[in-house]
Specification:
Elements lengths: L10 H15 L11 H8 L3 H13 L3 E4 L3 E4 L4 H9 L2 H4 L3 H22 L4 H16 L5 H14 L4 H22 L2 H19 L3 H13 L4
Length: 224
Amino acid sequence: MNLKPLDRQTLREKVVEAIRSVIVENGLKPGDRLPTEHELAEQLSVGKSSVREALKSLELIGVIESRPKIGCVVKSADMSLLSEHISFSPQVSRVTMEELVEAREFLETNIVPLVIQRDEPGVFEEMAEGLKLMEEAVAGKGDRREADEKFHMALFKGAHNTVLQSFNEVMEGFFVRLREERVNRASEGQEWLDAHRAIYQALEKRDAGTAQALIRAHLRRYVN
């Protein structure tokens, strides 16, 4: 790994950028080890403290993680960190429920054709497992959040697009509290189950139009 020495201006930021370049240019994947603090400091001609600060910054945003006896390794993308971060933003905290539902509706209805077209192996089985968990949850024998996430993660997995799956993870962070408030009411819990069962059946029949209409109707319950 060849790294260029850096000047002293905005040193920490430049070290952060240099380490990002190392990851991208060398095609490092999750689990791959980065050079040690000593190696990075030597190749960048900076102090170990500057490297240490940069590594902490990258660890904080979920780019890398520190492992005992191994060192720093590239971390798998965790969009839940982004969701937690932006949910504290004053701008985001003031968005309306209408806006959140509109964003989720846009994502979910537009992946339906992809799910049907690409017919990803195992997706319908995973959605069916999600439905089973929902049935158990409505009966008071399971976790409703886990069941809902299982169903929607399978739905987005069916699009076979990692970017869309990442957007779903971000949206999940916003919907957790709202979902818990609504589906914990007994009557709405049954409606929640019935809505997802109908969506699943439409997808199983490869009926994109019906599935999209059902998704819209289901999400609109959050704002009506």
